[in-house]
Write a structure and sequence with these properties.
The complex is a heterotrimer of chains A (about 325), B (about 180) and C (about 375).
Chain A: H1 6-37, H2 53-63, H3 74-91, H4 109-131, H5 134-165, H6 170-176, E1 189-190, E2 193-194, H7 197-211, H8 223-226, H9 236-261, H10 275-293, H11 301-329
Chain B: H1 3-11, H2 21-24, H3 31-35, E1 45-48, H4 51-54, E2 58-61, H5 67-76, E3 79-89, E4 94-103, E5 111-118, E6 123-125, H6 134-145, E7 148-150
Chain C: E1 13-17, E2 29-35, E3 38-45, H1 53-59, H2 66-70, H3 77-92, H4 98-126, H5 131-151, E4 160-161, E5 164-165, H6 171-197, H7 200-206, H8 214-220, H9 225-228, H10 236-239, H11 260-284, E6 303-311, E7 314-322, E8 330-334, H12 336-342, H13 344-348, H14 353-362, H15 367-371
Helix pairs in contact in C: 3-4, 4-5, 4-11, 4-14, 5-6, 6-11
The chains are: A mainly alpha (about 325), B alpha/beta (about 180), C alpha+beta (about 375).
């Protein structure tokens, strides 16, 4: 790897741009997608097909006042939205967009991503706690229990992947899957044996929806129960940062899913691998997330926890055991 | 025996002064109409009314003291409470409370229980111990008329602000 | 750092749900004493949109109160129109022409479908499902267009008159209504049932939630879908037939599960029954006038009158006391949701917050009707 000063700068700008564009335009995609599903046009007034809507929203949010209500813990209240954004952007550093587009190929990049994912939960906890609002507190408590519950099956499935690939480096995991969709972890054949990794894929995908607090698992936000959950007291860019953090988390989740299970930048037919395949995969995943959100009603918080502790964790444990057995035997 | 007759028979012992209420009261369809403007002129008792004309089958005029007993009888007959309405009769210096009961049974039977209290001391026993649903209806009547329901667990304002000091449905109330 | 929530000595805290809360659909406030996410005690606080309609009724003449009736239950306004018209007609002894009765039934049932559609949409919204809202509003829009054609308004109708209705219906309305029924029937199985009713998340969310026993219903005087979801076969249209309802063949859906799912199913089934009634009424629609001759100055005989109608939420009663004058001496409105909501406190005890809100949604609250 070259050690030029330009590399960090280019990647810094690149990642910031990628994060910014995604955070802004996923909102647009979500509204357009929701509109499509709900048989209405969605945003269409600002710019062609409403493409300037995110810009208008951004300007609106930025020009508004960040209200700090009486009785809140001022510093933490202001810092929490920033904490929500930082891990989401930082995660992008280790994501291999293609064979040669990756800011930093760390050996323990999987571990780093999970450490950062936990930090996002801290932001929700702090934001809710500092708000001094009862709805926000309930929401924070829910968010923490939910994140705790879903990190376990998520990590367990990743352990299975790490065992197969023999590496915790996302880049190595992706390289390991090159050469057509039959090499991808989700359809993995090992020495003529099917590895049933699609079970892991489903578990991982459900967990990533839950980790990012998306419907039907949006217990923390749950606007019909908790008004807006931890965001109840936030206005202006405080709210905006939380929203952007949420969208970036979805992007990171999709990137991770694509890298771990769908071969990263690999072409399904074994030819012309490249960044476009990676982007195609993550946007299909993101679309699925949006689709799910606008189709299903919300679950109940205790059912959500039951799903994790009683179904997903046992399944992912079995998944790890089976994978280990396969690797040992074949 | 129809529900109407059963109820009549069950209520009859409460009003011993009346001569054989179920049979005798049958043809008196017109009577409550005359009694309307002056509720106090009628003596307590059970009377059937003309359903097609007035929309209910049985009318019970009772003393405030008999209310709980009437409610208990109606409760045993599987009635439920529809509403409680107050009526202000300033000329007679009286407040009237009209309770409406009906039943879930296929055969319609509506019972109206009417009682009057003096306007200066509007005190009626609560029936919220018998019908839980009467709780809010009594609070509403208290809210609008200032009728005190004796023994009510929480007789506070329900629809008006909690610090209101007036009873708007009294005829002499001027906003 | 101070605690963000002040706990009382028994570790509970008070949570004010409303009056501005997305799930209370208006301005209902519920004072909840919470132990974590469990409700220890729930007390609805009413009156935030109280307008004293009963006093307004006493101040004006009989026809003057008609527009007010629609301002109470704005979702099933025609039933309130109908109820008030019925009680005054009863008191004044006014005969209604048959065609007018049929038109009343058609419009009231159309309005009932619109009301149930809106409830369905809002209930799903309470449960976090956004998309069904738009589908239901799409269909509801068709009903409102139809009713707008003949009544002149879309929400707060003042369509009924003593002795008839304000406006006759025309062929276009009849064709439009048939079209609407065909459309709703074709959309029901896929958009309503496949997408929502059979959705496992919804089923898990509302089955066994908000158990109301039949005895509880009776003690509190619950009516309408709330009672019918608890196995009580009570529908004023059947039990105390009014207008021309006896002429039609329709069923009263009754479910015995006593939970929110049962109430959900009752309402969904009722839409189908309403469509049956409308179809039969359109087939049988007689010719003739739609308005009887009614004296300008209505002075019903002195007396006590009661009339009940079935609204989308339950039995609506009008207790009318006349003194022979041209104003109602006393008009008491027995609004169904007032009684239905009064059992909320008892049932919600010990529930989780999320479940309690699902349960509250299943009661189908219309706040202006409670507060009047």
């Amino acid at each position: 790897m070259e050690t030029s000063i330009w590399r960090p700068i280019i990647y810094l700008v690149g990642i910031m741009a990628f994060a910014g564009v995604n955070a802004a335009y996923l909102g647009w995609c979500e509204r357009k997608g929701a509109g499509r599903i709900q048989r209405r046009p969605g945003p269409k007034e600002v710019g062609p097909a409403g493409l300037l809507q995110p810009l208008a929203d951004g300007i609106k949010l930025m020009t508004k006042q960040l209200l700090v209500p009486q009785g809140v813990d001022g510093i933490i209240f202001r810092v929490a939205p920033v904490i929500a954004m930082i891990p989401a952007i930082t995660s992008m550093v280790v994501i291999p967009f293609s064979g040669n587009i990756q800011a930093r190929a760390m050996e323990l990049s999987v571990l780093l991503l999970f450490a950062l994912a936990s930090l996002a939960m801290i932001a929700i906890l702090l934001g809710g706690w500092a708000s001094g609002n009862k709805y926000a507190i309930i929401s924070s408590a829910r968010a923490v229990s939910q994140n705790l519950a879903y990190e376990i099956p998520m990590l367990l499935t990743v352990i299975a992947i790490v065992m197969i690939s023999g590496s915790m480096n996302l880049r190595d995991i992706a390289i390991d899957q090159q050469g057509g969709f039959w090499h991808w972890n989700i359809f993995r054949f090992e020495n003529g044996h099917f590895l049933y990794m699609w079970v892991g894929f489903i578990i991982f995908f459900i967990c990533s929806i839950a980790e990012t607090n998306r419907a039907p698992f949006d217990m923390a936000e749950a606007e019909s129960e908790l008004v807006a959950g931890f965001m109840t007291e936030y206005s202006s860019m405080g709210f905006g940062l939380f929203m952007m953090g949420e969208y970036l988390n979805i992007v990171v989740g999709a990137c991770l899913t694509a890298t771990l299970f769908l071969g990263g930048w690999d072409c399904p037919f074994g030819q012309t691998p490249g960044v476009w395949w990676f982007l195609l995969k993550i946007y299909i995943l993101i679309f699925t997330v949006i689709w799910v959100r606008w189709t299903f009603p919300r679950t109940q918080v205790y059912r959500l926890l039951n799903l994790s502790w009683k179904i997903l964790i046992p399944f992912s444990l079995v998944n790890v055991l089976v994978t280990a057995a396969f690797i040992k035997v074949f | 025996m129809t529900i109407l007759e059963q109820t009549q028979a069950a209520l009859a012992p409460l009003f011993p002064a009346q001569e054989e209420p179920p049979a005798a009261a049958e043809p008196e369809g017109e009577e409550p109409v005359e009694a309307a403007t002056s509720p106090a002129e009628r003596r307590p008792g059970v009377a059937t009314t003309e359903y097609s004309r007035q929309g209910y089958h049985l009318e019970v005029l009772c003393e405030p003291g008999q209310l709980v007993a009437v409610a208990e009888i109606l409760d045993r007959q599987r009635f439920f409470i529809e509403s409680i309405a107050g009526v202000d009769w300033p000329k007679q210096e009286q407040l009237e409370v009209v309770y409406d009961f009906t039943t879930y049974e296929a055969e319609p039977c509506r019972v109206a229980v009417r009682t009057v209290v003096p306007r200066t001391a509007p005190l009626v026993p609560t029936i919220s111990g018998v019908f839980s649903g009467a709780d809010w209806h009594e609070r509403e009547t208290f809210d609008f008329y200032g009728i005190i329901f004796d023994g009510h667990p929480d007789l506070s304002r329900i629809l008006l602000p909690e610090d209101a000091d007036f009873h708007p449905l009294l005829k002499d109330y001027m906003p | 750092m101070t605690l963000p929530v002040e706990l009382r000595h028994d570790e509970t805290f008070v949570l004010n749900l409303g009056p501005q809360h997305p799930a209370t659909h208006g301005v209902l406030r519920v004072k909840l004493t919470m132990d974590g996410e469990y409700i220890v005690h729930a007390e609805p606080v009413l009156g935030y949109i109280h307008r004293m309609h009963e006093k307004i009724a006493e101040a004006g003449s009989f026809p003057q109160f008609m527009p007010n009736t629609a301002r109470m239950d704005y979702l099933h306004a025609l039933a309130f129109n109908h109820g008030y018209a019925l009680v005054v007609e009863k008191a004044a002894g006014i005969e209604v022409p048959e065609r007018a009765e049929y038109i009343r039934v058609i419009t009231v049932e159309l309005n009932r479908i619109a009301s149930h559609l809106l409830w369905w949409a809002a209930f799903l919204l309470d449960l976090g499902g956004f998309t069904p809202l738009l589908y239901a509003f799409d269909d509801r829009e068709k009903v409102l267009d139809l009713l707008e054609r003949i009544t002149g308004s879309r929400l707060t109708y003042c369509y009924m008159r003593f002795g008839g209705v304000y406006n006759d219906i025309d062929d276009e309305f009849i064709a439009g209504t048939r079209d609407f029924i065909r459309r709703l029937r074709s959309r029901m199985p896929r958009l309503y049932h496949d997408l929502v009713t059979h959705n496992i998340i919804l089923i898990k969310r509302i089955t066994d939630i908000g158990f109301i026993s039949a005895e509880q219903c009776r003690r509190y005087g619950a009516t309408g879908p709330v009672a019918r979801g608890s196995g009580i076969d009570f529908d004023v249209r059947k039990n105390e037939p009014y207008s021309v309802y006896p002429e039609f063949d329709f069923d009263v859906p009754v479910y015995h599960e006593c939970d929110s799912m049962a109430r959900y199913m009752v309402r969904v089934d009722e839409m189908e029954q309403s469509m049956r009634i409308i179809e039969q009424a359109l087939d049988k629609l007689p010719d003739g006038p739609v308005q009887a001759k009614v004296p300008k100055n209505l002075k019903p005989e002195a007396g006590y009158y009661y009339s009940a109608v079935e609204t989308a939420r339950g039995s609506l009663g009008h207790r009318l006391v006349c003194d022979g004058g041209k104003n109602p001496y006393k008009l008491k409105l027995r609004s169904p949701t007032f009684s239905n909501l009064s059992l909320f406190g008892e049932v919600a005890e010990g529930m989780l917050l999320a479940d309690a809100l699902a349960f509250m949604g299943s009661l189908d609250l219309v706040i202006p009707e409670i507060d009047r």
